[in-house]
């Protein structure tokens, strides 16, 4: 396409030169009439006039179509917000056509999407995926766009750095979280179980879960996720709290290390919740959505995930009251220990198969409301709309912008105007300690660990060390040993 355009341009220039060299005085006279900067006609000397070339480098003058990441059909409020953004964006950029695509990122589908050229111009993904997406060439290097963006220094570095690989930028953070535990205080009150201190421990979690359990009513004290990759993800928080790691890297060789003493300690604690306290659901094979549903329906007193997701679901779908839905940091393994939770986040990344123009428009669309008054107005309107529907607005604990930025102050001023904005406990926010996930083979590791969790919940008396050793060997040979070759 570029070669054809260059040939056509050469022919046009040649034709123009021939016309200029001819005796066509009529053409010269006609060319004396031009248009000044005010839009009125003026007469100029064509001998001193050179026609300005078309501004082909002006992105706002080019016809561009992008396929955007769009919320799912049941996310009506999010769709309404996105539709409003589309309207405002296309008013500013009438040259852009927006195509909606509600495909949600799936690690098992992204390769097929890319191979068939069906992936959106930009799509959502998670913090764990940066290295894998970069290695496979499934995400565009947007360093030039990002580094020339005026707000880059006001972004939350804790989150944004998750999608920087070898000094290059591959994604824009939307929001983030440190995995937390959320407690239904109402269920604790019903069993006269006191709320634990925010600076709590595994023993506190065990005692709270055991005390809140009401088997006759089908209420569990805690609902750790028991199926899918989220099962291994939930358990890994305890691995980190016990001082363990998923993998080590020495000289570019990645070695599984989760079968450590810390791993055994974490797995033994899971078994203690299951077999000693009998505090997990009888139907323990819960995925992410299942666990959140159990919490919002009052069938479990505690669940582990990003606090935003649990709380929003509990308040706006389950009808729970804010005073009964309390976000906690993850418990420390022992008193005085760190409240480590997996650091995660939601990111928007750009399709490397898109043209440069499409990539730039996608970047402008992603960041359209970032750090703007329009973004603040949209936030205010969103909170107002929720208030009118007797719904709560639940902020993400970690935002795309730095807490020290001027924009953060403006956001908090809006929150202060409303009584339907959920507020996190200051002690909780001060105690959370985010730890990034491993950047290689993480989802494969989570999948393998989900089998260990399921075996631990279904069979009493299993040997934790033997389970972890066998799983580490599988993960090592099938996944980690192949990392170096993939680099």
Automatic annotation (TrEMBL):
Ranges of compositional bias, category Low complexity: 34-46
Protein name: Extracellular solute-binding protein
Superkingdom of the source species: Bacteria
Pfam family, one: SBP_bac_1
PROSITE patterns: PROKAR_LIPOPROTEIN
Keyword tags: Signal
Organism: Paenibacillus dendrobii
Basic and acidic residues bias spans: 48-60
Range of residues in the leader sequence: 1-19
PANTHER family assigned: ARABINOSE-BINDING PROTEIN-RELATED, SUGAR-BINDING LIPOPROTEIN
Matching Gene3D superfamilies: Periplasmic binding protein-like II (3.40.190.10)
Region Disordered, residue ranges: 25-60
């Amino acid at each position: 396409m570029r070669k054809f355009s260059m040939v056509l341009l050469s022919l046009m220039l040649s034709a123009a030169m021939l016309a200029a060299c001819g005796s066509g005085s009529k053409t010269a006279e006609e060319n004396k009439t031009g248009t000044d900067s005010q839009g009125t006609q003026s007469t100029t000397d064509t001998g001193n006039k050179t026609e300005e070339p078309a501004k082909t480098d002006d992105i706002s003058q080019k016809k561009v179509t992008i396929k955007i990441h769009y919320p799912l059909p049941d996310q009506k409020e999010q769709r309404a917000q996105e539709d409003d953004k589309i309207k405002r964006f296309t008013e500013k950029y009438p040259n852009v056509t927006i195509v909606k695509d509600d495909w949600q990122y799936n690690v098992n589908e992204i390769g097929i999407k890319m191979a068939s050229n069906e992936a959106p111009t930009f799509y959502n993904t998670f913090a764990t995926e940066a290295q894998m997406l970069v290695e496979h060439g499934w995400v565009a290097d947007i360093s030039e766009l990002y580094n020339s963006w005026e707000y880059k220094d006001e972004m939350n570095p804790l989150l944004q750095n998750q999608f920087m690989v070898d000094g290059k930028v591959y994604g824009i953070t939307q929001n983030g979280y440190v995995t937390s535990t959320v407690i239904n205080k109402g269920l604790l009150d019903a069993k006269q179980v006191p709320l634990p201190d925010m600076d709590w421990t595994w023993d506190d979690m065990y005692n709270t879960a055991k005390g809140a359990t009401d088997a006759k009513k089908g209420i569990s004290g805690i609902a750790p996720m028991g199926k899918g990759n989220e099962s291994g993800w939930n358990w890994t928080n305890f691995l980190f709290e016990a001082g363990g790691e998923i993998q080590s890297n020495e000289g570019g060789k990645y070695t599984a290390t989760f079968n450590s003493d810390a791993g055994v300690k974490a797995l033994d604690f899971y078994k203690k919740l299951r077999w000693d306290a009998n505090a997990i659901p009888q139907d323990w094979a819960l995925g992410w959505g299942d666990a959140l549903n159990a919490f919002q329906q009052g069938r479990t007193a505690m669940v582990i995930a990003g606090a935003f997701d649990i709380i929003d679901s509990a308040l706006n779908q389950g009808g729970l009251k804010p005073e009964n839905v309390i976000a906690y940091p993850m418990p420390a393994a022992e008193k005085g220990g760190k409240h480590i939770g997996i650091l995660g986040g939601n990111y928007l990344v750009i399709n490397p198969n898109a043209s440069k123009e499409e990539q730039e428009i996608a970047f402008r669309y992603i960041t359209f409301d970032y750090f703007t008054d329009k973004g603040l107005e949209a936030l205010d309107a969103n909170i107002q709309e929720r208030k009118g529907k007797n719904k709560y607005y639940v902020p993400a604990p970690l935002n795309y912008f730095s807490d020290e930025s001027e924009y953060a102050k403006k956001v908090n001023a809006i929150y202060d105007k409303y009584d339907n904005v959920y507020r996190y406990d200051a002690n909780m926010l001060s105690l959370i300690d985010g730890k990034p996930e491993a950047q290689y083979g993480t989802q494969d590791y989570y999948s393998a660990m989900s089998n260990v969790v399921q075996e631990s919940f279904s069979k009493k008396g299993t040997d934790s060390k033997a389970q972890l050793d066998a799983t580490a060997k599988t993960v090592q040979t099938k996944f980690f040993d192949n990392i170096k070759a993939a680099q």
